[in-house]
Each structure stands twice: as C-alpha cells, then as structure tokens.
User: Fold Cell division ATP-binding protein FtsE from Motilibacter peucedani.
Amino acid sequence: MIRFDSVTMTYPRTARPALADVDVEIVKGEFVFLVGPSGSGKSTFLRLVLKEEKATKGQVFVAGRDVGRLSSWKVPALRRQIGVVFQDFRLLPNKTVEQNVAFALEVIGKPRATVKRVVPEVLDLVGLDGKAGRMPDELSGGEQQRVAIARAFVNRPTILLADEPTGNLDPATSVGIMRLLDRINRTGTTVVMATHDDDIVDQMRKRVVELDEGRVVRDQSRGVYGYSR
Ligand SMILES: Nc1ncnc2c1ncn2[C@@H]1O[C@H](COP(=O)(O)OP(=O)(O)OP(=O)(O)O)[C@@H](O)[C@H]1O
Assistant:
C-alpha cells in the first residue's frame, strides 16, 4: 500500500537529509506507528506519502503508483485515497460538526443525497451522534479530534495518516481516540500514525518503525515505544 525504496529527502538550504535511505513497506490493512525524536523525519515521511514533498532520491509508491512520477493533475485523486488527521484538529471554526464533515465530500463533488446519507453514518461511527449541530468551540478536545477523524474517514480512504493525533489530549481521551483509530483500521484501512505517546504505543502493540536523524533504526512487529524521550 505504501512503499519507500531507498528514499532520501533533503529540504532546500539544509545540510542534513530529513530522511536518509529509507526502505519501508506497509501492506494493506496494517497499523504502523512512526516514532523517533523531534526532527527525526516522521512528518516528512507522511508528507512524502501525500506528495506534499518529493523524494530527492529513491521512490515512494502509494497504492501501486510511483508518486514521484505522478503528474500534478493526478495528485488530487491520490489525496482522495488518503485521510489525514493532525494534532491540532484543523476544523473549520465557523461550521458545525456536520458541516465540517459534509464539506470534505462537497469539495470532491459528491451528490447532495450521498452527503446527507453518509455524514450521519460516520458521526455515529466516531461516537458523535447528537452533536451534529455543535460548533467546534463547543466541543472538548477529544470530541474535536473525533470530528477531524470523521472528516478524514467519511470518504472511506484506503489510507489514514495521523500526525500526533493524541498530542493535545489527556491520557484517558487519547485511549478513546486510539480505540477509534483501531476500529477504522479493522475496516481494512491502512493506518500510519506518527507519535510521541509512549503509553499509547506500548498499549497497542502494533508495528513500530523508529526513525533517528532520518534513518530507520528499528522496524518491529507488535513493538513498543522503546526509547526515552
Ligand atoms: N520545511 C522545511 N524546511 C527545511 N527543513 C525542514 C522543513 N521541515 C522539516 N525540516 C527538517 O527536517 C527534519 C525532519 O523534520 P520532521 O518535521 O519530519 O521531523 P519529525 O520527526 O516529524 O519531528 P516532530 O516530532 O518534532 O514533529 C528536521 O531536521 C527539520 O528541521
């Protein structure tokens, strides 16, 4: 589903590569934690999957396509297959919960009848039925993250990328968010999550890929967080 073949990525005007000779293969339906110190390259890895950055050397394959060779007009179709969740939720503040989720479908031209049908389904899935009419600032952090996950998942992407999704949440709320990501993973969605949350990684026992200064230093199935931060 995602394959990095000897990928090196160096940002302009920097000396050290953000990713150096990375080889990783993630198959359909896997759940993978990306761990490593700040600046080790986790976000850069996710940006390469989305083609927000381009590999300096090597190849990145997503859903069977070499994204480096993908023409720019095909990038929206690539991104439609990928849901993304961030630490800071990134909801539209002046839209309701329901409108935030619906908007993700409207911008890709889904018919109104489809939007009407699937938005309540996904709000139910993330445990937010009854909150459809609320504004984001009327929700707790955990609820806001559920909206963000609903928005990322409403189009049923094949891949869900999460960049520190529990970074702003307390431990109990984080556990709820992880249960939800696990449930989404069990529907067959490949999940890749960058995190500093050692408790969560240790509890979930999923595959762990550890980066250090842009290199993969560990790739462990049913892994643990494994280093002190
Ligand atoms: N836009 C950019 N321009 C130049 N250098 C960058 C840019 N973005 C990231 N970097 C550098 O690339 C390296 C990897 O950064 P990245 O954000 O991928 O790390 P990270 O593991 O996600 O860190 P964190 O845990 O703090 O989010 C760092 O040295 C960082 O300074």
